[in-house]
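Why should sequence recovery work at all? Because a backbone constrains its sequence more than one might expect. Tight turns favour small or flexible residues, buried strands favour hydrophobic ones, and helices have their own preferences. The token representation captures these environments compactly. In the example below, the structure is given first.
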């Protein structure tokens, strides 16, 4: 005898389908979250890089305006 499947799904299959659907939705939300965090991190890195480069340029200008420090002469050791 060949058993036929009933037209009505079993409670177990309904529960499994619901779990799979919820897991899929949660996974999609998690992936979107990861993408948003990555965008925020890149924006922050770009902002910090611009600040660092501006500070380095300002320091270079300030350094160029200063006179060169005289180099210290080394004393020769006295002959013994």
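From this structural description, the recovered sequence reads:
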């Amino acid at each position: 005898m060949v058993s036929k499947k009933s037209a009505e799904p079993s409670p177990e299959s309904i529960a499994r389908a619901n779990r799979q659907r919820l897991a899929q939705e949660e996974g999609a939300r998690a992936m979107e979250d990861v993408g948003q965090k990555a965008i925020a991190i890149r924006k922050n890195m770009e902002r910090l890089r611009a600040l660092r480069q501006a500070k380095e340029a300002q320091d270079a200008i300030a350094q160029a305006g200063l006179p060169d420090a005289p180099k210290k002469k080394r004393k020769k050791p006295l002959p013994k």
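A few observations help interpret the result. Residues 11-64 form one domain.
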